Amino acid sequence: MAVTVTILCENTVGRAIPAIGEHGFACLVETPQARILLDSGQGLGIERNAQVLDKDLGGLTAAVLSHGHYDHAGGFDQVLRHTGPLDLFAHPAIFAERYSRTAHSLRFIGIPQRRELLETLGARFRFTPEFCEIAPQVFVTGRVERTTDFESGDPNLVVRTATGDFVPDPFDDDMALVVRSERGLIVVLGCAHAGMINTLRHIRRQLPGETIHAVLGGTHLGPAGPEQFRRTLEELEVFAIEKIGVSHCTGQTRAAQVRERLGQRFFFASVGAVLEV
User: Fold this and answer.
1) Structural domain of residue 215, as residue ranges?
2) Where is the Metallo-beta-lactamase domain (predicted)?
3) I want to staple 82 with a disulfide (CB 3.0 to 4.6 A). Which of 57, 215, 250, 258 is the partner?
4) pLDDT in tens, 222-233
């Protein structure tokens, strides 16, 4: 089955096209039977970049939200104005009240639009807390089980509880998209808040015996400490992945280090990057 993955939103523009870079992520996955949008960036570049890359947002068959952060969900109101009624697959915890907290600031980073607005525009939320097939040979992971001892998450990302307290965000809603191709599985990460290795292990348990051909998207290795980064690179070798394209929350420094380690298997999954299998 032929599969094409096109990066529509990302922090950088990777080639000489009149597109917009933004802190966020979105990509279009196309198979013979489906056109699925994973995430929508902040909303600054999704429409323009789709036009520049000659990708019709109106022709989507479904959309997926990897987790409930503004830089992945902020453009869905624009997308829905192109598509009309559209199935939007997500974990039921996407609307948690999320913040980025430092010693000097508290900043809301959850989904900027109310659920009611998105539903008025045509969003048909299909909640997927568990691994499931959403189109022929296309799956979402649902909640990713945490099994590693080194992927601890970002303590600056918190949620407000019903009592008004702030606690570390468990990211129960963090999930990835998986596409079965003739060369193996293609895994598309939004941010991998659950951990890149946790996510790949989870997929292996759900689809035992299948090889992972490519992984691309946000890895959240940017804020990872040295030990987590080292262990992640070591564990990646176990999966024998042929193509790894990093985006967004990987950060430029970590991306360069991954490139140094992986060599020709690596690519920058910036705006305009295309993976064809």
Assistant:
1) 4-276
2) 23-248
3) 57
4) 999 999 999 999
